Amino acid sequence: MDTASQTPLSLREVTKQYGSLTAVDAIDLEIEAGEFVVIVGPSGCGKSTTLRMIAGLEDITDGELYFGDELMNDIEPKDRNVAMVFQNYALYPHMSARRNMVFGINAGDDSYSDGEIDERVQDAAETLGITDLLDRMPSQLSGGERQRVALGRALIRDPDVLLLDEPLANLDAKLRTEMRTELDQLHQQFGATTVYVTHNQTEAMTLGDRVVVLQDGEIQQVDSPQTLYDFPQNRFVAEFIGSPTINLLPVSVGADGDDRYIERRDGQGGFRIELDAADETIPDERTEAVFGVRPEDLHLERTATYEHASALSMTVDTTEPLGNSMLVYGTIAGQAAKVQLDAHTSVSVGETLSLVCDPDRIHLFDAETEEVFYHSASAPEGRAAASPTEPVSTSHN
User: CA-to-CA distance for 99 and 56, rounded, in angstroms?
Assistant: First the structure.
C-alpha cells in the first residue's frame, strides 16, 4: 500500500448554523499537506460538526472549504476522497473483518482489481497487527481489534484526508495508550493529512503536530502542543490544557518606581511577586489580573534554587499520592490551589508550606477579557504578536 497522497485543507470563515444556533462560528484554519491536526474542546464546542463539514456530511452555512485549490462546498461526500473513523467503530455485524475493510472500496471514481484489493487488505492488516483476525466477525473481536479494523478500512482507500472522530473514546485506558502510539506510527508511515477530534487533552497533546482549541464554536488558539501549554493565549486555554489544571489566583498588578509586581492581600495572608520591569506588556497603573501558575511550577522554598524568589504560604487540606509524584491541595491567600511535589515529600494535613514560583513560569490574564497579557518566559519567535487563531506550523513528530 503506497503512502497516501497529501492534500492541504483550508477552512475560510466556515460557519454552521442550526436555525438561530451557531454551532461553528467563522472558523479560519489552514492545515498543511500531511499534517496531523487535533481539534480539542469540551462537549458541544463544535468540533465534530467541523469534522462532518470537512467530510461533506453537514452542509456549510457560510464560508469556504478547500482541498488544495478545489472548492469543496458542493462536492458530494463520495467524491471527496476522505476516510472517516468514528467512536463506535461502525462495522457491519454480519460481515467478517475482511469484508468490512473492503466494503464500498470501489464506490468512488477509483476502481481496484480483486488482486489490488487483496494486497491492500494484507498490507493494512500487517501494519495494524490484525492479519489473523480478518476472517472473524465483529462480535468475536475486542474493542481495540474492532477499532483497528475500522482504521484498516480507512487506510486501504489511500484517502487524501483522514478524519478521526473520537476514535479512542470507547477503549479502556491501557488500550487508549497503545492506540495513541499506533496512530502516531501510522501517520508517520502513511502521511495522510489527518484531522482528529477529541475532548481528551492528553490525546491532543500526544498526537497533534498542531492543536486547535475550540470553545463555543470559536477557535481560541492554534499552536504546537508545547506552545499551547507554555504560552496559552487566554484563561480558557490555560485551564483546558494541562493536567493537573493550572492554579488561577486573583491579584493586583502594581508599580513601585521602576519595579513591577503582582500581589494579593486578604485576611488569610498574601504574597507579592516581582515581575520583569522591562516587559512593556505590564501596565504602569495598578490593575486587576489573574495570576496563573501550574502546580509543577511551584516548589518548596527549602529546596528551590531561585534567587530573590518571593514565598507563598499554602495551608494543606489534603494530599493525593500519584506514585511518581504527590498532588497537594490547599489554600494560598484564601484561594484554592495545588502543588505537585516529589512522591516522597513529607506533608501533613493542616501544615503550612512555604512555596516559591518558578520565575520563568508566570502567566497573567486580564481580569475582564481573560486574554493573556504577560508570560514571564520568552515566547517562541513569531508568537508575541500572533492572534489566538493564527496557525504556526510546528511538527513534534
Answer: 25
Rounded mean pLDDT of 197-209? Answer: 95
CA distance linking residue 52 with residue 47, whole number of Å:
9
Structural domains for the chain: 9-239 (3.40.50.300), 245-375 (2.40.50.140)
Residue type, 178: E
Query: In the structure grid, which three cell numbers stand for residue 258, read together?
Result: 521602576
The DSSP letter of residue 243 is S
What ranges in 191-274 are assigned the alpha helix state H? 201-207, 225-230, 235-240
Tell which residue, 255, 195, 223, has the closest CA to residue 14: 195
Whole-angstrom Cα distance, residue 130 to residue 127?
8
DSSP state of 159: -
Helix (H, G, I), strand (E, B) or coil at 257: coil
Cα→Cα distances 234→219, 230, 294, 368, 373, Å:
11, 12, 14, 11, 9
d(CA 381, CA 224): 13
Q: What is the pLDDT of residues 14-43, one digit of tens each?
A: 999 999 999 999 999 999 999 999 999 999
